[in-house]
Amino acid sequence: xxxxxxxxxxxxxxxxxxxxxxxxxxxxxxxxxxxxxxxxxxxxxxxxxxxxxxxxxxxxxxxxxxxxxxxxxxxxxxxxxxxxxxxxxxxxxxxxxxxxxxxxxxxxxxxxxxxxxxxxxxxxxxxxxxxxxxxxxxxxxxxxxxxxxxxxxxxxxxxxxxxxxxxxxxxxxxxxxxxxxxxxxxxxxxxxxxxxxxxxxxxxxxxxxxxxxxxxxxxxxxxxxxxxxxxxxxxxxxxxxxxxxxxxxxxxxxxxxxxxxxxxxxxxxxxxxxxxxxxxxxxxxxxxxxxxxxxxxxxxxxxxxxxxxxxxxxxxxxxxxxxxxxxxxxxxxxxxxxxxxxxxxxxxxxxxxxxxxxxxxxxxxxxxxxxxxxxxxxxxxxxxxxxxxxxxxxxxxxxxxxxxxxxxxxxxxxxxxxxxxxxxxxxxxxxxxxxxxxxxxxxxxxxxxxxxxxxxxxxxxxxxxxxxxxxxxxxxxxxxxxxxxxxxxxxxxxxxxxxxxxxxxxxxxxxxxxxxxxxxxxxxxxxxxxxxxxxxxxxxxxxxxxxxxxxxxxxxxxxxxxxxxxxxxxxxxxxxxxxxxxxxxxxxxxxxxxxxxxxxxxxxxxxxxxxxxxxxxxxxxxxxxxxxxxxxxxxxxxxxxxxxxxxxxxxxxxxxxxxxxxxxxxxxxxxxxxxxxxxxxxxxxxxxxxxxxxxxxxxxxxxxxxxxx
Length: 709
What we know:
Helix content: 40-55%
Largest sheet: 12 strands, mixed
Number of strands: 22
Distance between the termini: 134 Å
Structural class: alpha/beta
Number of helices: 15
């Protein structure tokens, strides 16, 4: 029996081998000219002489490949009757220009279509794909088609994985996937693709994976995103805003271009966790789950125990990693999936320069920054108007104060821009971060703050030097600093400040690095040198001011120095004032230099406290302490109002006091008179010299320390 079984088995194998051998030659005998047929049921037409689609394909094969051919067109019905065909590959056909209507139609077993590397292919008829019930994979890559092919008549019974990569698509029209089940849609590399119609996914199920990397898409559709579980938008620079996060119901993973977009999902994750934490229903559910898991060693037993003992119905048993719970029709319709939080995994993560927060961050800082910018703008405008419209002579101190007021006004504009954008984007900054930081607004804000800070430091240094020069050479009128000298000096300051502020706009560092628009980019050696240069220059200015006031103090303390008591007070008070200014700037300089040397001691979030509390304080205080609180400013202010018919009595009173003061000084001192007027936080000091019956003004100085004189 055993021998007979062995013989019959050998005969069966021999018969099968004979049938396979006989089948091969018959199949190959039917192979079209210029094509090769394999024993694995595939036909390969790979020859430059193939300039048309053969019409004598055998009926039994399943895979057809056109490669390196000279096909210019694939005509209608080219594959008609090939009912066993499962795959069609059209690869590297450089001459292919057109695919006609019904080319891929009525092929019941066709599972895969690949069209690749046909740059001259610019036209695929809208009716080219019809009635392909088994189609699952469709790939059209590296072609010249400029519009989206119609796939709504495919009527596939399976999810379609659609890849249209590196084409010349410019738009995907509305309802483009109507009636289809999309598993994956890959539009990567279509650099001219700018528009996905808002209704593009209406009528479709899916996609679950959406890839729009390396496209010019600027807006995602609001409809149909609920099916997306994975979103890929890498190197998609135009996509700066996301639709409402409520549209991403199933999203689990995202790969974006900008870290700010990941902040959106991070904030949403935190929001959901907070809602779950404070939900009484969820807490009760989790307590039941925890107690069951503690009492059971097996996960399966834990679930069964929960179903039996939970105060909730059995259908509400918790299932790990599920987003909802099944409910009976007779139970209340509460979505217990709300209690299951699944975080969205997103890349790239926010970095140290762009944390996931609003521009200003804390509410208390919002209040302070609005107060600061209003004081800086209103106060410095008032000082400029009063000084520039005054009928008194424009002296060197007045001129320097005008420059200081203008620089502080620019700082106020910077604060106003930052505060306004922060209010407008509060809670949604992730959707505005790219537009703001790469746009003209942030560039303007950065220019204003660097220009203002450098011009302010320069002007304070000039005021100090002028004070030192005036006191040191008080008796040498030939060495008096004239207005034309001050104009030349301040012209240099304006040119320097403008140049320093413009450099980040032309590529030396930039204002785009952080939301507060300061030049913090130190990636290149030139950018790092630029930042360090500015900071060290400010430190040198501080040291120079300190040195000058030490010299002034020593001069007025010299018994041989001829000066009034008021000169000594001026020197001491101004030394305290400007030293205080730079004490306010020292924290910023210290932390900024450490960051520029790539050894940061403070985060960007904490640096915003310095920005709000220390950085602009002088710009807000200077107009009040140097001018507005002073008696001399009040005199000029009332005289200005009197021109419009207001406060005429007050103005006349100040005119009388000024005239009387000058007359009494001339009578008392003869050839030399020093008239000093101190107000709340400021002093005008005028040195008048009688030379051939003519009074000559020698000095005038603003002060900003409270005085009772």
